[in-house]
Write a structure and sequence with these properties.
It contains 11 helices and 21 strands. With about 475 residues, it is of the alpha/beta class.
């Protein structure tokens, strides 16, 4: 068998296959005749090494557990092959944002708690142990020594408030505090420490930590910027040809994550089958699962290659409806073949695929999972202040600072700084992956007289569109 193409998964250092196996489709909602574990087994035997699931994907993790036992990938199996387990990357997710909270207190996204899969879950730490039990243990809460997850991801991040909750207690994780975010506890599970009081056995249960989401690219950027110590290793995010019709991830969160050297995993490549047979809503039934191989209007091969051609993407995950012994009829084999992309598509080829989506009337396919387009936005949080050291040297300057604008359908090229309505300088746009702000020093010529000036900053994108910040009042930046 020809060796599959792989890409580096960011700073994890892993080389992952360009197609990963998604944990939904027939692994979550199998029709009566479908053997979910057989799909996982076939993916493994074909060489796919990135495997995706979640704690809110119904029986998905149990199906992975069944497949892992058959394949000798579980430490609980008599035929366990630790080296083979070490060659696959198993990523799951938790939707719980806290590791500890006062009794009775709720956080609005913690809907995955409670009696699930036979045992109680109330914290993100519980979710990790549940995953280990379902995929490598007895399915009732127990898991064997040596079981671990390659990545636990905070699932479906939508708001800045959720990010703040995840980071709660990170700098001072008091073991007896009432509130503790999920992130500091995950660090204990990664490092085998117990700073939070949530890992009394000092187990090492996870290797990496990530975030996922498809709605709000601004929240993903905020998470990456807050993560100044680079604890978040991966971003799982929507990417397909309709991305530019919404608040685009391609030129926002994906670009920022890549600049931070995170591994980027693309999802919703087929818009959760809304490009094909299904109406625009989330799948929740076996009838929603797509079993076809694309359509004449929208060949699936092109959609896969499109997603893999987006700069920064390491791999994509695709859910599988069915497998077949005949590669020509097998979704998994066909998708895997399409993902063997040695070089990314060029701009013209990608634009042609976007045009296919439009011609097929599918521009609205992402409407139920991606935030509406807002176009190029102005730079945010613009500030300007006189440089106090310059007057002593007989010169005057104003330092103008700002945070990134959000891109529309095309990338941002530059920022223009305007003084009293006139452009006095430009700064190239780069993905802002830290809290460090963009900066421009407006230095006045020697001998220039002091005075009051107004400033604003303009973002300019590749299509020539511009968006300006509000004007800062002249008196707030007096040079004197």
């Amino acid at each position: 068998m020809k060796k599959l193409i792989t890409r580096r998964l960011g700073r994890t250092g892993w080389q992952v296959t360009t197609l990963g196996l998604g944990g939904q489709a027939s692994i979550q909602w199998p029709a009566a005749a479908v053997d979910s574990a057989a799909i996982i087994e076939k993916a493994y035997r074909l060489g796919v090494n990135y495997l995706d699931t979640s704690n809110i994907y119904g029986p998905s993790q149990q199906h992975f557990g069944e497949a892992f036992r058959r394949l000798g990938l579980s430490p609980a199996a008599a035929n366990y092959d630790a080296a083979a387990r070490g060659r696959i990357y198993v990523a799951t997710k938790t939707h719980i944002r806290t590791a500890r909270r006062p009794s009775g207190q709720q956080f609005h996204t913690d809907y995955s708690e409670g009696m699930l899969d036979g045992f109680h879950v109330s914290t993100a730490v519980d979710d990790v142990r549940r995953s280990l039990s379902l995929m490598f243990g007895d399915g009732k809460g127990g898991y064997p020594d040596g079981a671990y997850l390659d990545c636990i991801q905070f699932h479906d991040i939508n708001t800045m408030n959720e990010i703040d909750m995840l980071f709660e207690g990170l700098d001072d994780p008091k073991p007896h505090s009432d509130w503790l975010g999920a992130l500091p506890a995950m660090l204990d599970l990664r490092e085998g420490t117990n700073r939070t009081g949530c890992n009394p056995k000092k187990e090492k249960l996870i290797r990496h930590i990530g975030i996922t989401g498809h709605w709000n690219t601004a929240a993903h950027i905020y998470a990456i910027q807050r993560d100044d110590r680079r604890f978040l290793d991966t971003l799982l995010v929507t990417i397909n040809p309709s991305d530019g019709k919404y608040l685009a991830h391609r030129h926002n969160a994906i670009a920022v994550a890549a600049a931070a050297d995170m591994g980027v995993i693309g999802m919703k490549v087929f818009a959760d089958a809304a490009y094909y047979h299904k109406e625009t809503k989330f799948s929740d039934h076996p009838d929603h699962i797509y079993h076809g191989l694309g359509s004449p209007e929208l060949p699936s091969d092109g959609l896969i290659r499109y997603a893999l051609s987006v700069a920064g993407v390491s791999t994509i995950i695709v859910g599988i409806g069915h497998i077949d012994d005949d590669p020509a009829k097998c979704q998994l084999s066909r998708n895997l073949a399409a993902a063997q992309l040695a070089e990314p598509l060029g701009d013209k080829a990608m634009a042609a695929i976007e045009a296919q989506v439009t011609a097929a009337g599918k521009d609205g396919a992402n409407a139920y999972f991606q935030r509406k387009a807002i176009g190029l936005t102005p730079p945010r949080n613009v500030g300007a202040e006189a440089d106090s050291s310059m007057p002593m040297l007989g010169r005057f300057a104003v330092r103008v600072t700002w945070d990134t604008a959000y891109a529309g359908a095309v990338p941002i090229l530059r920022y223009e700084v305007l003084r009293d309505g006139e452009v006095v300088g430009t700064v190239p746009h780069t993905p802002q992956f830290t809290a460090r702000r963009f900066c421009y020093d407006d230095i006045f010529p020697d001998g220039a007289s002091a005075g009051s000036h107004s400033y604003r900053v303009r973002a300019v994108d590749a299509a020539g569109a511009a968006a300006e910040s509000v004007t800062l009042a002249a008196e707030s930046v007096a040079v004197a």
